[in-house]
């Protein structure tokens, strides 16, 4: 018989959160090398596969920081930024467009996000909807 260890955490809802063993190695290499690109090179993993792996484990990263920034002009376009300690995504939202939501940028270090998009002024609710922080 051969035993293989597996890492699992229990989430706040009591469900087990299974980790792909590659995510641990990837996160270790990101810390060691400072960037996702350098980490993927060290592991011999494609950059695209690394992003897919991070995306699949995003729920294990906890709640993101969320920013909503309206762009100047009359288009009504918004920039939504979602950031965790090790990854971030930025979307452009234009409700009247044929493609109302599109991925505009992403990265592995929050320091890469332009300062204008780091006023963390929203949260995600339990269903994943963006909720602006409104002063009451």
Description:
The protein is of the alpha+beta class and 136 residues long. It folds into 2 domains: 8-60; 63-132. Helices cover 23% and strands 27% of the residues. The protein has helices at residues 21-33, 36-43, 47-56; strands at 8-10, 16-18, 65-70, 78-83, 88-93, 101-107, 122-124, 130-132. A 4-stranded antiparallel beta sheet has the order 3-4-5-6, with no helix packed on it. The chain has a two-stranded antiparallel sheet with strand order 1-2. Helix 1 (21-33) crosses helix 2 (36-43). The mean pLDDT is 82.
What brief labels describe this structure?
136 residues, alpha+beta, 4-stranded antiparallel β-sheet
Brief summary:
This protein has 136 residues and is an alpha+beta fold. It has 3 helices and 8 strands; from the N terminus they run E-E-H-H-H-E-E-E-E-E-E.
Question: Helices, strands, pairings?
Answer:
Layout: E1 8-10, E2 16-18, H1 21-33, H2 36-43, H3 47-56, E3 65-70, E4 78-83, E5 88-93, E6 101-107, E7 122-124, E8 130-132
Helix pairs in contact: 1-2
């Amino acid at each position: 018989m051969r035993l293989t260890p597996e890492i699992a955490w229990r989430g706040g809802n009591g469900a087990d959160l299974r980790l792909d063993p590659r995510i641990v190695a990837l996160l270790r290499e990101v810390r060691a090398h400072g960037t996702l690109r350098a980490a993927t090179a060290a592991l011999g993993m494609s950059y695209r596969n690394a992003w897919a792996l991070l995306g699949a484990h995003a729920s294990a990263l906890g709640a993101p920081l969320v920013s909503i920034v309206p762009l100047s002009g009359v288009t009504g376009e918004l920039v939504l930024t979602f950031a965790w300690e090790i990854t971030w995504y930025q979307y452009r939202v234009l409700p009247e467009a044929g493609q109302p939501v599109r991925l505009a940028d992403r990265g592995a270090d929050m320091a890469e996000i332009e300062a204008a998009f780091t006023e963390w002024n929203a949260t995600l609710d339990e269903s994943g909807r963006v909720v602006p922080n409104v002063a009451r």
